[in-house]
């Protein structure tokens, strides 16, 4: 149940309420825009956290492939999680204000 996209739930509810209209196509557009913007925000936020951590502890030693790999994996996880949340927010905003 957690993996169900909030976009699909909002689209289903709007379709049940309004029927098929062309304005319902704005819901997936809002979801895509929300996903991209929140994924960028997640990457920027994690980059800020890494920058602050490197200021306190110093950067990882040269050749430490594990540090770069771990940071990249965490960046992608955070981008995916915040992107999923952003897709729901974008679809919700499109549903409430444009449909």
Structural write-up:
With about 100 residues, the chain is mainly α. It has a domain of about 70 residues. It is built from three helices and no strands. α1 runs parallel beside α3. It is rod-shaped and about 60 Å long. It starts with 5 loop residues before the first helix and ends with a helix. Keywords: Membrane, Transmembrane, Transmembrane helix.
C-alpha geometry: rod-shaped
Strand-residue proportion:
under 5%
- Round the mean pLDDT to the nearest integer and report it: 86
* Count of runs of 4 or more consecutive helical residues: 3
Distance between the termini: 26 Å
Helix proportion of residues, in percent?
Answer: over 70%
Class by SSE composition: mainly alpha
Rg is 18 Å
Helix-strand string: HHH
Quaternary structure state of the chains depicted: single chain
Compact description:
The chain is an all-alpha fold and 99 residues long. Helices cover 79% and strands 0% of the residues.
């Amino acid at each position: 149940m957690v993996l169900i996209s909030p976009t699909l739930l909002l689209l289903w509810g709007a379709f049940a309420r309004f029927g098929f209209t062309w304005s319902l196509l704005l819901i997936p557009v809002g979801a895509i825009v929300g996903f991209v913007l929140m994924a960028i925000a997640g990457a920027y936020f994690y980059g800020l956290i890494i920058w602050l951590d490197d200021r306190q502890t110093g950067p990882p030693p040269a050749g430490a492939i594990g540090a770069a790999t771990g940071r990249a994996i965490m960046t992608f996880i955070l981008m995916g999680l915040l992107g999923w949340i952003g897709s729901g927010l974008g679809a919700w905003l499109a549903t409430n204000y444009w449909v």
